[in-house]
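[recover] target loaded
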């Protein structure tokens, strides 16, 4: 890869959305799509060399939306007595910690936000959605999903 920064028009998203990530739950799917959009924006900003003051609000928005999404999922899992709630919440906590660490680095004005931050977030989301979240949705469907699956 060239050492030159990619322009916004030539940089491919690090986390392209795919219908393979759809769970069939309208709210969860729309929140997932928004998280993908935010990670892609962050990735583009990092590649464009946007200064920390420009990246900080993006990380804050990503953290806010992530926490909102995880709270909603965890509330649904608790309401449905989801048997994997504890392990699912631990995985959520790991991503929140990763975003908070990146935000702390920005606030401490570290000179570089590594591209691997967006790569890590992208890989985590894809793995989590295709594994943990799909398993959660299957449980909801099998155990009377009166509310968790919105159309």
């Amino acid at each position: 890869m060239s050492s030159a920064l990619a322009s916004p028009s030539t940089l491919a998203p690090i986390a392209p959305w795919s219908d393979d990530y759809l769970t069939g739950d309208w709210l969860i799917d729309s929140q997932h799509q928004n998280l993908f959009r935010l990670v892609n924006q962050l990735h583009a900003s990092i590649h464009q060399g946007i200064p920390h003051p420009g990246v900080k609000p993006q990380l804050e928005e990503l953290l806010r939306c992530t926490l909102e999404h995880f709270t909603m999922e965890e509330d649904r899992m608790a309401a449905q007595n989801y048997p994997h709630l504890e392990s699912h919440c631990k995985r959520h906590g790991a991503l929140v910690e990763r975003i908070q660490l990146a935000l702390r680095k920005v606030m401490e004005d570290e000179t570089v936000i590594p591209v691997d931050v967006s790569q890590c977030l992208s890989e985590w989301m894809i793995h989590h959605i295709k594994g943990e979240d799909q398993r959660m949705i299957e449980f909801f469907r099998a155990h009377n999903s009166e509310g968790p699956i919105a159309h």
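[recover] notes: The CA atoms of residues 23 and 58 lie 26 Å apart.
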